[in-house]
Write a structure and sequence with these properties.
Elements: H1 5-13, E1 31-37, E2 40-47, H2 55-69, E3 74-81, E4 95-103, H3 111-124, E5 129-133, H4 141-145, E6 162-164, E7 168-172, H5 187-199, E8 205-212, H6 219-227, E9 232-237, H7 241-256, E10 261-272, E11 279-280, H8 287-294, E12 299-305, H9 307-314, H10 318-324, H11 326-348, H12 351-354
Parallel strand pairs: 2-3, 4-8, 4-9, 5-7, 5-8, 9-10, 10-12
Antiparallel strand pairs: 1-2, 6-7, 10-11
Amino acid sequence: MTDSPVQVIRQAIGNHPDPETGRSIESMGQLLAISVDQEKVNVEVALSTHSMPILDDFREALESKIVAALPGSNPEIKISTHNRPPVRLGQIALRAKSVIVVGSGKGGVGKSTVAASIALTLQRLGSKVGLLDADVYGPSIPQLLGLSGRPAVNATKRIEPIKLNGQMPVMSMGFLVEPDQAVIWRGPMLHGSINQFLSDTDWGELDYLIIDMPPGTGDVALTLSQAIPIAGSVIVCTPQEVALLDAVKAISMFRKVNIPILGMVENMSGFLCPDCGKTYDIFGRGGARTKSDETNVPFLGCLPIDITLRTAGDEGRLAEVIDQDERARAPLEAVTKAMVRELASQTLQRPAQGTTLPVL
């Protein structure tokens, strides 16, 4: 007795891994419906908001498996939202599925702009995102996003973060000190402030908490590695050799504190002149890709020098430009999707640790 077309499709896609957990979509209750009407195949699958940035990849993979199982079929995949709340991380109250740190070996490479842009892009692609500015000595996230104000303490004695457009929670030392005042702290005070930002802030339920690290290889990485499980790190550098040397030190640091490396981003990679259309490699090009190959680190992509984004960051309009300017956000979107793909790939290699179940 031959299997029905519905059974054939179920066998073809039922074991496809959920990007968030690494487990099969059927075992996770995400394969909702299958119907076949001659060549027309309708499938409904649920995907968590954590995985929405790679929704197109997920859909294309399922379509390919269906066509391979039923040659000549015309699949249509409907994606709905799979509700899967995050669990608490470690011993603190933070509920986030993936904590991702964005670091660099040196300052001046655009790390904070990249961190903020990744957070904004993840949110735009459908995920629930928070942004923590852990650069205590030089907080720049408030300026990039045009945020100000002082966080309040709510009825549960937790810190209310400043919310961008009423949605994305953001926390930074820049909200707690005056713009012209310096933070002059030793290590223990820095350690305490980072832990307080993580545990005492009312972040809500997040798919991603993006953490903008301070430059260099100091105390903050060690503090974070001891406080919470880190899903991965992104290393930002520019193409010239002096920056790449410091990026290699950042790679070494993350490996020593057992923080997985999701990949390297080459920022300021070429400048496209808006007047003549010619590209100028002001800082060189391709150095980060070469170094990523040498160090066995994934390469997430290149971000060109973009006057629109630079101006938007200076004026506190970064979120507005990423939301409205397709040309400006395209390279950032490519990098962000590559990061999520790498996270899903690493999760697939350890499905038991990637599983997140609701807290009852």
